[in-house]
Amino acid sequence: RELSAKQQSVREEERTRVAREIHDELGAVLTAIKFDLSWTAESIGKKAEFAEVFSGLDSAIRSIKQICTSLRPSILDDLGLLAAIEWQAGAFSGRTGIVCKLVHDSHAPEVFRSVSTDIFRIFQETLTNIARHAYATRVDIGFQVRKGKLILSVADNGVGIQSGANSKSLGILGMRERAKSIGGKLVVEPGKFGGTRVLLEIPLEGKKPRGASASSIP
To answer: In angstroms, how far is the first alpha carbon of the chain from the final one?
Structure first.
């Protein structure tokens, strides 16, 4: 478990580093090019002729922001896990048209950044699986604390999980491995009224940061 946790931590650190370098280096270069080109176009009175070039630069800058966000959402570091889950659910709903409803406790405990990252990645993969396989129109998300455990549940109203998919899906196996690496448990099961439910339970007692500072869930 410790080796797996270390590998996950190293991967996330590398994601963060790459996202920062792309944003700071490539993003800054493209922004500078846009401003320089805009100044040149205005000075020669040809700004209209450069409209397509400006549009292409804007598109490239947006793509860089999206890539950086997918590598490491800044909201996870800045505002915490719950805010990141709310943001991801909203982005998923906007992209797919699938309605997402989030129910959460008004007061949530302190969660170390490294653990928050693993929980968030599991949530991301769950939504990805729903988009790819579920044919769902609604997703209900629960984020609560019960008996010393942080519980994240994601239930959809789709076609349901196929027999044997639990043990064969690389995505589900990866989610289980992440959960295990932080002392948690992941269950994927048929929903009570159809569809599929993913249930993640993380014990909160005795959690230690893996070389990271603690962050509070708002």
So the answer is: 29
Q: Which of 181, 164, 176, 167 is nearest to 200 (CA)?
A: 176
Question: What CA–CA distance (Å, rounded) separates 84 from 73?
Answer: 8
Contact 8, 178 (CB under 8 A): yes
Long-range contacts of 96-99 (CB under 8 A, 24+ apart): 96/131, 98/130, 98/131, 98/136, 98/137, 98/138, 98/139, 98/156, 99/137, 99/138, 99/139
Q: How far apart (Å, rounded) are the C-alpha atoms in residues 52 and 54?
A: 5
| CATH 3.30.70.1350 matches 75-216 | no
Domain ranges, ordered by start, for the chain: 2-72, 75-216
DSSP per residue over 162-196, as a string?
A: PTTHHHH-HHHHHHHHHHHHTT-EEEEEE-BTBSE
Rg (CA), the chain: 21
Query: How many whole angstroms separate alpha carbon 113 and alpha carbon 136?
Result: 31
**pTM of the entire predicted model:** 0.69
* Tens digit of pLDDT at every position of the chain (218 positions): 555 556 666 776 776 777 777 767 777 888 888 888 888 888 888 888 888 888 898 888 888 877 877 777 788 888 889 999 999 999 999 999 999 999 998 766 667 676 888 899 999 999 999 999 899 999 999 999 888 899 999 999 999 987 666 656 778 888 998 899 889 999 999 998 899 999 999 998 655 444 333 333 33
